[in-house]
Amino acid sequence: MTNYGVIMNNPAAKPSIEKLETYKPNFGKSKINNLIRLSANESALGTSLKAIKVLNSFTHNLNRYPPQVSDDLISAIANRYYLNKKKIILGNGSDELISIISQAFLEPSDEAIYTEFGFLQFPQAISVAGAKGVIAKDVNFTANVDNILSNINKKTKVIFLANANNPTGTFIPKQEVIRLHKSIPSNILLVYDAAYSEYINNNDYIDGSSLVDNYENVIMLRTFSKLHGLASLRLGWGYCSENILSNLMKVRGPFSVNTAAMLAGIAAIKDIEFQEKSVSHNLEWMRWFEKKLKLLNLEFQTSITNFLLIKFPKEGSYSAQNAVKFLAEKGILVRGMNAYSLPNYLRVSIGNEEENITFIKQLKNFLDN
Quick check: 23 pLDDT over 80? Predict the structure, then answer.
């Protein structure tokens, strides 16, 4: 091997990557095969039968690349939500869109703001882009507009806001979102993650699409992983100005969305009956959960999503960590909140009827021990 007169070192990633910890979704672990998984905010009722039918009859040649853009899926999304199809971008889950937004808009000298208990993918994507992430403190587990605004400076390029928020289940109302947008300079991009918007039945909520229609510096993100039950196919979408979309497509992989996901997505978004059934189920069982948790004397964060953040004693036999272990032994997986610096909290998704009843029964057994 040729020696070029330099010290030979192993290849190194850029510093922002070397010091970054790998993002690892934590769905929980159990030795029981027949699991109840309430740890990932997935669809309680599974997937639309119409989408499953499409997948079962999938006969496309697997040796062919998918289309770079599915006009049929984009049209289906536009028709379902009354949007401009020229402003819709598809992604391999909304995670990919968060990533390419950061790559497209953030330089190492830039800063991006995210909220204290916001989605973990936000700081991850910021760091991968090499920029500096800045935390805006929440108030009562809710994003706070004044705290976001107080962190803006000349280096601020992007603001990430999940509304409603994961893992707290809280949201900031329409007028606060509008105030936030009006208060930021037009060169700052507001990334508005509305992943749980389909579950929300509240007149004081805004999904962000109207802001995109009226302004150039907003991106709304959505997903097929929650209400539509297509988490395993990784399908998300964004709504933004045509100029932003054009730049994001330069960064996005040319075939990031596979053909099966496109076809299932079209069928799922057209199945209004399944969507309405899922929303109704979620509202009914959310009320049921709240009543049961109150009877168990457990505090929880009121949620407008498909999950609840439940508080446990900080120490002792009834800690959140012990609850995770006990429930796992019974074949029930819930999400511990250590990654969010909330060690005495658990996040629990709304499941189907049997799963919900079993969870509350075993939670009561844990507290009665």
Answer: no
